[in-house]
Write a structure and sequence with these properties.
The complex is a heterotetramer of chains A (97), B (324), C (96) and D (481). Chain C has 96 residues and is mainly alpha-helical. Chain C is built from 3 helices and no strands. Chain C has helices at 3-24, 29-51, 61-94. Classes of the chains: A mainly alpha (97), B mainly alpha (324), C mainly alpha (96), D mainly alpha (481). At the B-C interface, α1, α2, α3, α4 and α5 of B face α1, α2 and α3 of C.
Chain lengths: 97, 324, 96, 481
Amino acid sequence: MINLIALCLILFGLFFFIAGSIGILRLPDIHSRLHALTKADNLGLGFLALGLILLSGDIFIAAKLLLAWLLVIASSAASAQLIAQRARRRERDVWKI
Amino acid sequence: MENIAWSAFDVLLIAATLSLAWASLTTEHLRRAVIFFIAFGLLLSLIWLRLKAPDVALAEAAIGAGLTGALLLAAVADHQKPINKKPDQKFSLADFVANTFLNLLFIAFAIVFGAAYTFALNEVNDSRLTDIVFQHLPGTGVTNPVTGVLLDFRAYDTMLELAVLLAAALGVMAIGKTRRDFVKPGDMERGLSQWLIPTLIILSLYLLWAGANAPGGAFQAAALLAAAGVVMRLTGYVDGGLPQGIWLRVLLVSGVGGFLLVSLIMMFAGRIYFDYPESWAGSLILLIESMATISIAATLVVAYLCGQPDTWFGGQQKENKHAD
Amino acid sequence: MLIDQILYGLCGIVLFTFGLRIAFSPVHFLRRLLAINVAGAGLFLLLLSVAYRGFDQAPDAVPHALVLTGIVVAFSATALAVALARQLQNRDKENE
Amino acid sequence: MNSIIWLVAIPLLGALLCTVFPRLANRIGWMFAAGNMLAALLVMHTVSQEGAFHYVIGGWSQGLGIALFADSLTALMVVMSAIIALAVSIYSTAYFTDTKKQAFYWPLWLLLLTALNALFVSADLFNLYVTLELLGLAAAALTAMGGSKEALSAAIRYLLIGLIGSLTFLAGVVLVYTAYGTLDIAVLTQQFQNNKVSWAIATLMTLGLMIKAALLPMHFWLPPAHANAPAPVSAVLSALVVKAAIYLMLRLWPDIFYPLANIGISYVLGGLGAAAIMWGSYQALRAQRIKLLAAYSTVAQVGYLFLGLSLIIVLPDGELRHAVMVGVVLLALTHAFAKAALFLAAGVIMQRGGHDRISDLDGTAQTLPVTTFTLALACVALIGLPPSGAFLGKWQLLTVLLHEGLWFWIIVVLSGSLLSAAYAFRLLGHAFGKKNIPHKRLAIGLEELPALVLSLIATLVLAFASAPVAKFIQPLSGVSQ
């Protein structure tokens, strides 16, 4: 039973990953791409981590998976902000590399 | 059914890695090539996991993709023009012939090498040195075989490898001073770093401690500590959190020094060089490992600084001037 | 002699040869450095596929230690090469 | 038995101390070079008493731990590098005046010495890869300390070609581990068979070492690196670092690859060696600077050594092969001392005269008589005129070639000597040229002494060395079985 739920969670997470990737390919400019990437992937990873926690069953591994998820959220949010600021500054100077 | 799924996964993974390597080496923009290289490094650490080598996966992700990528990104930051295609690229027969000849030569080389590899695989029964390693492992006081090989059976190799790292750091510092022009860190980076750096340090200590019986060890822990140093460097601390003057020099040297002193003490005590006594083998390895971790981390940060820190000769760290 | 060993081994050989092929061609210095890193990674992949002994068996630990040493040696060589290249760039910028 | 460990431990300890105390680096440096000299003599003494001996690090058996191995060839090479290291260290205390440069020169130089000693004594293939890498890295870092733009670009090219060379060598090591499951040379010497995989291993390793030794097709990185490096560094690069790869060829081919020896390999290596002799001597004739001339003459001398090596590979065990071995060792030793003396002398001229262009060298004999005398002695040793060890080496080589009736190689060796005589006398002709300014003799003892001592060793000491060296080198193939 637990495996079934875990499998659904993982599949659900994969769905978000795919959504994020399609977002990058299809969306027009850098800001919306960043938006798609960070949101979808973090959520996807969350579900993936939840599914794996159910599968692992060991408290330490569960804690490590959560920590991994938190780290990814923090770093992707910060880097998305930085990239957006730099893109904003670049558009303001209208200087194309 | 089981191994067909695994083989499919393998083929997919290999195809992705090869295409990333191809992309990294043939795109015209150098910056794009470096980013492809970082992605290639991460996929590589995935392959190491598939080949049941978790220690190597940790090191590859942290040093191979992470630090090397950060170093190369910093190097190509100011590259604007596409490097590969020269504007007046007219078709010259000589180049074409030379290129095709070289390509054929290397394809033949690959075929010969592949054939030799497949023949060589079934020459020896699969175990090679595995049984001997597991047979002697209890004598080393650690249960993780890779740490056992790295710090006990082939400790002389690791000492020389730390000497290579020290030589690279000295070579980097001999060339010039670190660059000082830095974008002022906004509150975003400072907020992140105040939270991220302690986590990295704790993770690094965990990896060092876990190294004795689980994947981890000196190099992986040092890579995380160096990552903390890189984050500090990017958020305004020009010297990347390194100590001042003589302490930095002692820190850089303590990795190789630890190995050398312990091995010489063993020799003075009448034992063979690098032969740890059974009873304290575990604690000796832990001592060497912890000294090596801090020293490797400092050396990796110095290598990332790409120059000689201001305080190397003992002067005060000059106020870091921010270029907007 | 497992199918995985051959698969990953040949992938390593292709990476090694491709890296050397680019390293010998007249490209920008930093790309040649990338090519050497890719070639080194190919060799490490070859070494670890030799160490792989099946899904449920413990792998051979000696190649793992060798690859760890190789990764650190490759990093130090790259660090020195990048430092040399940046100093050369500063020299070009100075007298441009 | 522990003396073999001191060979690696002393220079490494010196390097660490020089890093921590940069202001004392000068004094610590040459003291540890002297300590290394003692360790080398100790090893020589142990080998002469007990013959070749193994030392497994950490006491692990069955090829698990790393074994060190010292036989007569190792002892000779180690003592040679110790003497040159001491002379170069004394010279560099006077050469480097800026403390910032000294702080990094001495640790890197002692790390290079550690790598050399570790390479000479190691008997484990992966350990050889790590020492080759340390050697290449330290040498490239030292070349870059030349400071000029050419030095930097030469150092980068040297580093990259060195990396490609050690990667090819590593490819051979990986195949060895795949096919034979061990990395220990002694264990491998018994197990090695003559099959296709061994051929792939031999070609990969030989290619890697040929790149490292700058044999002809892969020699283009050597002249700029050796010409633009600081004088003491280029002395060590030409005299010792190039020899390390050739020493490995001498170590690998007669022992491990013995079952693979056939006439084809010796013609390939001999042919490349002959081409290197011709090309190196020709370029040396056209060189405009002393250091460039010396660098190209290194390319030529590498050719001689590979020619001798190709003979050693193919000759069956016995008197002839032993004679060629002694010839090659004498050639290597004399070239090392003579080339180091030549570079150190060029360094003195460069510092005193401000340039080392050969055409404007006239008046050197008047202002720097001792250095010019060293130049002359070094040229005598490079050409192979009678009082030098090179004469004995070439004589041994020629007698064996005559006995085997290989006329082509004889012509190559003789014309090579003729060409080296040409470029040597061109250099000396300019150095002894008259200059109408009233000459003032510069007496700079410390700087000129090391070069003089090295050139005297090359010409006089080695001239009487053929009998003791012949006795000291046991018949090669009987060493490690």
